[in-house]
Amino acid sequence: MIFKNPNYAWFLLSLPALIAVMIIGLRSKETKLRQFINPLMWPKVVPSFDRMALIRKHVLVLIAIGLIIFAAMRPQYGTEFKVSKRQGLDIVMAFDTSLSMMAEDISPNRFRRMKKEAITLIELLTNDRIGLVVFSGDAFIQSPLTLDHSALRLFIQDLHIGMISKSGTNLAAALETSIDALKETPKDHRIVLLFTDGENLNQPMERAIKRAQKNNVKIIPIGLGTPSGEPIPIRNDKGVILQYKRDRQNKTVLSKLDEKTLINLATKTGGSYFNTSKAPISAPTIYKVVSQLEKRDVEADIKKHTKDRYHIFLAAAFLILLMEFLLSARKPKAKRLSMLLIAVVGWGMMETPTYALWSEAYYHNEKGIKRLAQSDTTTAENQFAQALSELPDSGPIYYNLGNTFFEKGQYDKAIDAYTQALGRLEKRDRSDAFYNIGNSFAKKGKLDKAIDHYKNALRATPDHGQAKHNLEWAMIQKKIQESKKDDSDSQTPSQNAKEKQPKKEAQSEADKNATMEKEQTEQVLQYLEDQEQKARNEYFEKKMEKKRWLRDDW
Asked: Which of 38, 166, 293, 406 could make an S-S bridge to 138, C-beta 3.0–4.6 Å?
């Protein structure tokens, strides 16, 4: 037998004190009686006073209290395996957050309509695991597949235009990332709900479509907008329209729903296309189609549990207190007190041990925090995992687990843990989670995604000093990388030939490059601090105009 809450054993030390109090009380009562009545006359004068009966009652109460303490210690022995099964689908929702989604050809605008459709659909897909992907000029997984739909709704409500630093609309990246999010799902049950206006301004989609076909991923595009199109409003912080988006020829951009692209995408992958402009809300219609797809039985989890046996001790305490109550010769007030104690113990026998679960999770969480502070990451991970087995919806525990993975250098796992924590944390803590996700991406060298998450941290908490500092650092590093790339692209054949010179000369060239790199870093830092970036911006724009993915930024 093991005790899951051994700290309650300290209450057993109260039993000797209770015994002493009962003995003193009994002797005090006998002393007072002797002052007025001869002990030989007690049976006739005070027949209700029975010394042995009182001793038996005290012993019964002490035993009951001891049993209650043992029950609070949560004794366990024996094991059982619990398998939770569900029948459902694995679905990824991909959301277009490009500037064109602000067009108002459907009410109130494409972006807000998209969020409304998605939240309504999530409420209908009760048994399905759902993941979230966000895209514009690039794409990333906002939430892995999960059954925690309340967290998903929070994620969707927090979506905003410009949350990805790279502008434009890259449907290829959206599809590739969505397929990655479904990689652990059996091939017969992979679905992507693509919320977009279909304007693919970046990379061609042929490679992504072939990969979707190969992996049996059904793409269900949900078109937002109208074929006739609408200008894209540019608003200030107060929502007032300042102007409409213009292209490089200074012409007003007319953003249109590209149904041809979306229908082609659905046809080639075995999905269905939906146009949201034809109904006040399309989610029920989409749900009917999705719900008719073949579902599968999924073993959501298999866990080994030690059986709780605290009910046995509570039941024994209940019977002993009931016996003591029936044998009691006390006054009605004392009887009522005994009855109240019996009722409390009886309620504890029938109630689900929610407090016990919380107490156990708290114990493992605190132990994990201490181990993490001692750099014992393996033990800390095990402690947080045990805490989550007791309280699987605890945001702080997921956050602590993410910290553990981060310390171990397992940044992908850290990102997953922080993401699970996001929908379960308060606003300030969510800012810290975004900040740590940014740090994880930075460690992986993915500066664009790091910058996006540092910005999300600052949106949640504008005074987050560490997020501001790391955002500046990430932007500096990104500029350095872009500068190196541009310098590499502009190398002449004669410069390339220098790399083939003898070793001493190559070493000298490396020293020069190192010196140049140091000077270049100082220059980048200086121009970032002084915000004197006009000339460099013009240079970058000229270089990047040749790249197709930056031709259009809406």
From this structure: 166
* Residue partners of 21: CB distance under 8 A and separation at least 6: none
> How many H-runs (helices) and E-runs (strands) does the chain carry?
21, 13
CA distance 197 to 261: 10
pLDDT category at 5 given cuts 50, 70, 90 is: confident
Tokens (6 digits) for 444: 């992986």
What's the rounded Cα separation, in Å, for the pair 102 and 230? 10
What 3-state class would DSSP assign to 230? strand
Distances (CA, A) of 290 to 190, 214, 367: 11, 21, 44
Determine which helix (DSSP H) or strand (DSSP E) holds 440, and give its type and residue range. helix 427-443
Residue 85's pLDDT band (cuts 50, 70, 90): low
What one-character DSSP code corresponds to residue 253? P
**Whose CA is closest to 162, among 217, 99, 70, 221?**
99
Residue 2 burial (10 A CB sphere; 0-12, 13-18, 19+): exposed
Sequence-distant (6+) residues with CB within 8 A of 91 are 125, 128, 129, 130, 131, 191, 192, 193, 290
- The token duo for 221 is 């595009």
Residue 286 has φ and ψ, to the nearest 5°, of -65, -40
Given the DSSP bridges, would you call strands 90-96 and 75-88 parallel, antiparallel or unpaired?
A: unpaired
Distance CA 381, CA 383 (A): 5
pTM of the model as a whole: 0.52
Q: Which residue has the tokens 């996006």?
A: 452
Phi, psi at 470, each rounded to 5°: -70, -30
Give the pLDDT of residue 315: 81
Cis peptide before 332 (omega within 30 of 0): no
Phi, psi at 303, each rounded to 5°: -130, 145
Q: Does residue 294 have a pLDDT over 90? A: no
Q: What is the pLDDT of residues 333-366, one digit of tens each?
A: 455 555 555 555 555 544 444 445 556 777 788 8
Does residue 11 have a pLDDT over 90? no
* Contact predicate 345/66, CB 8 Å: no
Contact 112, 119 (CB under 8 A): no
Q: Which residues pair with 222 in a beta bridge?
A: 195, 274
Give the whole-angstrom CA distance, residue 551 versus residue 402.
38
- The pLDDT assigned to 354 comes to 47
